[in-house]
């Protein structure tokens, strides 16, 4: 492609790289008589900032995935769970070989924090498993959950709930074994 000076060109992204959201707009650019490139937002005509006078930049935002570790009772973010994410193929392979999917090679691990959801940037499009390897104090362990990441700009959100451990206390008559009220 030969770029002619003084002529505007339109750049439109047909597909985005994995882990990035496709740029929905179009970029215009032109080469001025001094050899400098000018880049514009196609919809507004506003000139865009570029790193230098020779570069046309097509911006892409990384995919964003939000993980919420919440109490099934209060709905609030809870601290103390150790979580990991594995690709579907790693999870299923670990499950086939060891019987446990949580033995997979995690691509990210963290401990949940009270009042905070976890944001993970740039997960590639695909299917993943969120796995809890340690439950927060006072809560039952939760099974893994399968989720999908899309790079179409839609919100990727996973909520993982824990049920509190319930303890039943009763008093019985020592001689009869009957429950006392």
Structural overview:
The protein is mostly beta strands and 181 residues long. 6% of the residues lie in helices and 35% in strands. The strands form four sheets. It has a four-stranded antiparallel sheet. Strands 1-2-3 form a three-stranded antiparallel sheet, with no helix packed on it. Strands 7-4-10 form a three-stranded mixed sheet, with no helix packed on it. It is elongated.
Q: Shape from CA axes? A: elongated
Mean pLDDT: 91
Placed side by side, the strands forming the largest sheet appear as 6-5-8-9
Radius of gyration over alpha carbons? 26 Å
Total beta strands: 12
The biggest beta sheet is recorded as: 4 strands, antiparallel
Distance between the termini: 88 Å
Series of secondary-structure elements, N-terminal to C-terminal: EEEEEHEEEEEEE
What structural class do the secondary elements suggest?
mainly beta
Strand content: 25-35%
Low-pLDDT sequence parts? none
Q: What's the tally of helices?
A: 1
Helix content: under 10%
Set down the secondary structure blueprint.
Elements: E1 8-12, E2 26-31, E3 37-41, E4 64-71, E5 82-87, H1 88-98, E6 108-111, E7 118-121, E8 126-134, E9 145-149, E10 156-162, E11 171-172, E12 179-180
Overview features:
single chain; 181 residues; mainly beta; 4-stranded antiparallel beta sheet; 3-stranded antiparallel beta sheet; 1 helix
């Amino acid at each position: 492609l030969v770029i002619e000076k003084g002529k505007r060109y339109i750049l439109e992204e047909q597909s985005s790289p994995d882990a990035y959201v496709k740029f929905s707009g179009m970029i215009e650019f032109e080469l001025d008589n001094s050899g400098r490139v000018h880049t514009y937002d196609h919809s507004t005509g506003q000139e865009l900032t570029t790193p230098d006078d020779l570069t046309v930049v097509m911006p892409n935002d990384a995919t964003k995935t939000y993980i919420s570790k919440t109490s099934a009772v209060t709905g609030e973010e809870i601290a103390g769970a150790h979580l990991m994410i594995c690709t579907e193929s790693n999870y299923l392979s670990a499950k086939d070989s060891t019987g446990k999917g949580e033995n997979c090679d995690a691509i990210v691990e963290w401990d949940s924090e009270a009042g905070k959801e976890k944001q993970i940037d740039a997960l590639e499009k695909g299917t993943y498993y969120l796995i809890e390897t340690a439950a927060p104090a006072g809560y039952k362990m939760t099974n893994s959950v399968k989720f999908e990441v899309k790079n179409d700009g839609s919100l990727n959100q996973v909520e993982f709930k824990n049920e509190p451990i319930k303890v039943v206390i009763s008093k019985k008559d020592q001689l009869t074994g009957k429950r006392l009220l």
